[in-house]
Amino acid sequence: MIVIQKHIRLIFIIMACSITHACTLLPTTPESLNKNIIEWLAENEFDKIDYALKKISKNDKKYSYIIDKTSSITTARNKFIKETSAAAITFQRNNQWQKALQTYNHALDKIEDEPRLQKEKTALLNERDKQVTNLRKDMLMKRANALISYKIIYSKLHKLIPEDYSAQFDINRFDNDRIEVANHLRMCGDQATKNKNYTLARDCYYLSNELEPSKQKSQLVTSLNKQLKDISNQKRHIKLLSAYQSAYDKHEYNLAKSHLNKLLSISPSHAKGRSLLASLNKEVQEWVSSKIEVGKERYSKKKINSALEIWRQALRLEPENPELLQLISRAEKVSQKIQSLEKTQ
Fold first, then answer.
1. How far apart are CA 205 and CA 184, in angstroms?
2. CA-based max dimension of the chain
3. How many domains is the chain built from?
4. Which pLDDT band, with edges at 50, 70 and 90, does 3 fall under?
5. Is the pLDDT of residue 2 over 80?
6. 107 located within any domain
7. Is pLDDT at 105 greater than 60 in this prediction?
8. 176 — phi, psi (to 5°)?
9. Which residue range is the domain that position 22 belongs to?
10. What confidence category does residue 9 fall into, taking pLDDT thresholds of 50, 70 and 90?
11. Average of pLDDT values for 167-177?
12. Residue 188's closest CA among 161, 209, 158, 164?
């Protein structure tokens, strides 16, 4: 019974406090409200201002001069948001993360759910968490590498003095650390795989396997190495195909062919690369054949130098074309004879 009375009394106290707090926000007269707004503006208490303004009628002429302050209140609000943002960003740049977070929290207590500040605070927390994760990863990796470097030392120590209590104590402590870090690295690999961060996953599994070897971890490392190689090749494929297209569009066919040959040297069975190369070779052959015929026509009209120019252009695309080599050789001899005859005349 006494407990129930205490609970009832507590409820009444809470209700009384709530009513008292609400009453302080409710405008009694325009003058008192105006005074409160001036005080709240000085303290950047914009939530209290919004609550109070919602409680008055816009059609009530007694409060018209207060309603006219809406624009200046909005200006003050925007200034407060801007200054809060600038201060928090400065703290963040100076690596004062806690001060930056406190700046956002202090402002959001006065202007709850403000979109810009909420967004910036979320970005701050995400960046902080990212950096914390990276630092913990680096510490784990360095700890693992240090333990790996000690493995041989402790192994030799055990063989030298296997019954020495002090040595065995150190060895046991090392083994406990080694197993603990190996387990953490295994979890690091699992999480990194889940996040599709395959490089980190491979590194974590590799170090874990060095500390505490297992067939499964070794297989995971091998599998991830293959996967990373495939991903790397895919990126190179995309880059080389893009370079091919750029060269082809500029009619730089030799360069275009070079990019395709590089692609096929990485992945000989690349279907698109093989198809593009076959198509390019056919196009080049047709172009060279047409140039050969044009050159022959000019040669037959005694336009030797013009024919030579065209055949040499074609030769740049097919340097080993036997017909072109023969035509150019014959035309060069004729051209030289003509020049010699012109000099003797």
1. 10
2. 139
3. 3
4. very low
5. no
6. no
7. yes
8. -65, -45
9. 2-68
10. low
11. 92
12. 209
pTM for this structure? 0.61
For residue 31, being part of any structural domain is answered with yes
**Domain end call among 44, 68, 92:** 68
Contact 258, 244 (CB under 8 A): no
- Final residue of a structural domain among 159, 194, 213: 213
Going by C-alpha positions, the residue among 213, 214, 206 that lies closest to residue 140 is 206
In a domain, 197, yes or no: yes
Instruction: Report residue 323 as tokens.
Output: 């017909």
| Cα separation, 99 vs 125, whole angstroms | 12
Which conformational region is residue 203 in: left (phi greater than 0), alpha (psi within -120 to 50 degrees), or beta?
alpha
Instruction: Find the length of the chain.
Output: 345
Q: What are the tokens at 9?
A: 């009394």
Q: What pLDDT, on a 0 to 100 scale, did the predictor assign at position 339?
A: 79
DSSP percent split of the chain into helix, strand, coil, nearest 5: 85, 0, 15
In a domain, 99, yes or no: no
188-203 pLDDT per residue, tens:
999 999 999 999 999 9
